[in-house]
Amino acid sequence: MTITETTTTRLLELRGLSVAYLTERGRVPACSDINLTINRGEIIGVAGESASGKSTLLTAITRLQRIPAVTVGGQVLYHGSRAATPVDLVELEEPELAGLRWSEISVVMQSAMACLNPVLRLRAQFADVLKVKNPRLGKAELRQRIAALLAMVGIAPDYMNHYPHQLSGGMQQRSLIALAMACDPELVVMDEPTTAVDVVMQRRILNQVLRLQRRLGFAVIFVTHDLSLLLEIADRIAIMYGGRIVEVGTAERVYRRPRHPYTRGLRDSFPPLTEPVRRLTGIAGTPPNLLQLPAGCAFQPRCRLRIDRCADVRPELTELGDGSVACHVAVDDPEERS
Ligand SMILES: Nc1ncnc2c1ncn2[C@@H]1O[C@H](COP(=O)(O)OP(=O)(O)OP(=O)(O)O)[C@@H](O)[C@H]1O
Q: ABC transporter domain: which residues (predicted)?
């Protein structure tokens, strides 16, 4: 996909978004100064180790965050198809936000069981969501629409009469994906939607998501710790470390020629999905304590390429070649360096 960042293609713009957990131990800066644009119909992957801030970012974007998480700065500008000017999701009042949920922005979380209502049959849950956009839908029409949605993810229509616990884990996750598609949204936010299922089901679900995305054209923000998975599905990838984006670029570029030493370490921590297995090296050391971030680059204590400057000056995310990277020693073609 060619990505031209014109105003007409922009769907979501994160501008200086910062989120903190206000705890008794202090203020945990889980996301700091996040700047990222998601274009219409684009699949953007967000990757990083555990505790890098990926889920915090998604819950802030969708306003699903709970105390003690607080958005302490920045904007989430949503360019909806029905409004002439973008709305800032950070500032939006709850009734307006409710109008966007499911119909324009929907969410698929890690555990389907945490999102599906255990005491309602699937039919009732789909009907509730479908009625958000079209309150007049009659019983027969609802049944038809629900059957079509379930069919999209390979589930037979009879299952609409089941309760979530009567479905396998993979089916629950696929039902949730179908539910997220119910109102033909502009943006689907997915937080590790396949971690709870086995590898075969993971592949099946990903293929279904890709097929649906091509057919329906929605944009996706897909969070995972597995970079090799994003190579398969994403147009662009953003890498998070210590609550900041440290590299952004096309999926091919970020995966095959990562410029940030952390991105390279992350890539080499996971076996590739479809290519010959490399030696997995991982990243030495542990993720930073967000309550005691170093003055300079948060990754420098673990970085074998660090220079003196890295300890004192935090590198800004800066354009380099066809992407952006936050690293004092980054070069456009890192293969030349190593
Ligand atoms: N309720 C909370 N109170 C205080 N700190 C929190 C809370 N929830 C998360 N954090 C901190 O925020 C940081 C980011 O967490 P987050 O869950 O967003 O990371 P993540 O990249 O999604 O990790 P994972 O891949 O494990 O889900 C971590 O340091 C975490 O300890």
A: 14-267
Nearest to 329 by CA among 302, 316, 310: 310
Residue 157 CA, distance from chain mean position: 29
Q: What is the CATH number of domain 10-104+183-337?
A: 3.40.50.300
Tell me the best of 23, 31, 32, 54 to mutate to test the pocket of ligand 1, counting ligand atoms within 8 Å of each CB and taking the most: 54
Count of CB atoms situated within 10 Å of the CB of 118: 9
Q: Considering only CA atoms, which of 326, 65, 3, 31 is closest in space to residue 189?
A: 65
Q: Which residues are paired to 43 by β-bridges?
A: 220
* Runs of H (alpha helix) within the chain: 54-61, 94-100, 112-115, 122-133, 139-152, 169-181, 199-216, 227-233, 251-256, 261-267, 308-312, 334-337
Please report, in angstroms and rounded to a whole number, the separation of the first and last CA atoms in the chain. 30
Provide the residue ranges of all domains of the chain, joining segments of one domain with +. 10-104+183-337
| CB-defined site of ligand 1, < 6 Å | 21, 23, 28, 30, 48, 50-56, 68, 225, 290
Rg (CA), the chain: 21
Q: What is the pTM of this model?
A: 0.92
Can you give 251-277 as a three-state secondary structure string? HHHHHHCCCCHHHHHHHCCCCCCCCCC
Tell me the mean pLDDT in the region 21-31. Answer: 96
Report the complex ipTM.
Answer: 0.98
Higher-pLDDT residue of 310, 277: 310
